């Protein structure tokens, strides 16, 4: 069985709905993290990590929109709004700092007129916890994920 990531809110390759767009920086979205569900995790998975990354941001290093670590292995779904303070994050899960400067989901907000890709990825991790907290950057989370990944599944949406 393949490791897959699906969503009731997002469709791979399609436009991000306004519900998931940032509210600020010239945008009036709802800034709600999307529903995400995954299946087919590799054997030996002890936890999951979710990231949202925009490689098109004009920073030289992309833009981290969301990071959630230490999702227990028995959790295979997050409801819409889980990363936006609406409840639904499992006990023990940790949201890391985004490039907006704080922990929690930050939706799409590309510079006006630019076309960006948003990569939503779930990683199957070989340890129950990564040593990260709400102050960890996306790069630091990614560094830790790199050494513990058993598999990953992604979907990509666009926004302009």
UniProtKB/TrEMBL annotation:
Pfam families: PBP (PF01161). GO terms for molecular function: protein kinase inhibitor activity. Residues 1-25 are annotated as: Disordered. CDD domains: PEBP_bact_arch. InterPro entries: PEBP, PEBP-like_sf, YbhB_YbcL/LppC-like. It comes from the Bacteria. Keywords: Protein kinase inhibitor. The keyword Disulfide bond does not apply. The keyword Ribosomal protein does not apply. NCBIfam families: PRK10257.1, YbhB/YbcL family Raf kinase inhibitor-like protein. This is Kinase inhibitor. The lineage of its organism: Bacteria, Pseudomonadati, Pseudomonadota, Gammaproteobacteria, Enterobacterales.
